[in-house]
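Aggregate trends can hide what the representation actually does to any particular protein. The sequence in question and its structure tokens are set out directly beneath this paragraph.
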Amino acid sequence: MRRLFMKLAAMALPAGLLIGPAVALPASATTTDAVTPAAATNWPYVSPYVDMGAWPTPVLSQMSAASGIKGFTLGFVTGAGCKASWFNAYDPRTAWQKDEIAKLRAAGGDVKISFGGASGIELAQACSDVNALYTEYAAVVDAYGAKYADFDIEGAATADPASISRRSQALARLKQTHPSLKISLTLPVLPEGLTADGLNIVRSAKSAGAGPDAVNVMAMDYYRSGTDDGDAATQAAQSTHDQLKSIFTGKSDAQIWTMVGVTPMLGKNDDGSVYNQDDARQLVSYARQHHVGGLGFWEATRDRNACNGALYQCTNIPQQPYEFSKIFAQYTG
């Protein structure tokens, strides 16, 4: 995600060491959100990000059982040179964490593999050749039998014409060889919608024949004083919908809504603003009204920890563990 927090797995820490104890904050005023029986169908409509570089490595099946969330978006696969790597620590070709993914699938969920993020080198920038880039994408998809691939494009990568073109061409080929694969582009957003760079990425993918199936917006860190993060997230969703409608002119209004994904940052954001539980309920209500294609959030381990500390592991607002997850888990499309 935008301004992604530092990766910890590559720091060679002793096994089992937790960076900063999870200190529970006082319970929020409303903690009655429960996962209803219908939440069994929240996959694939709800897929919060999990920072797989956190230490210790998150246990996906345990997080799912405790939160009611059936599946997750796993971040991030980057480039160690022109070679796919989990944050320069693990080789995706070995299907790292596939045992945990199998548990999610057995329980009716799944994962989306996310390439890119704010740290490291995005593969489309690391690879100078379209064929080599396609080979890396395909190797990861094949290793996990993935049905969903997310491409989190931010920072310098959003305005790099060469890598944008390579990515679009590689994803078009990936679509041809893996026709059931769903591709999402995760992009920075403002309340007014995608930036000009983001729109260019979407148009490039469409022109190349790479879809996308969804555009997931990072509804966070606007760096505008006085912004209400709850209102900004729903406004960004509406603005993105309207922009996509002008690009994908052959699709109906309802079809465009199924392409929209919204991912806020829980609790305190990097810009000092706060996305709280009422904001999450507002977004779930809005998503139900419009049948939004997907909801996520950054990030599931922060929601689990419910602590006050470094932003890469804590929300820094009063909450119970997995309180946000239980709100989002009620969305079933």
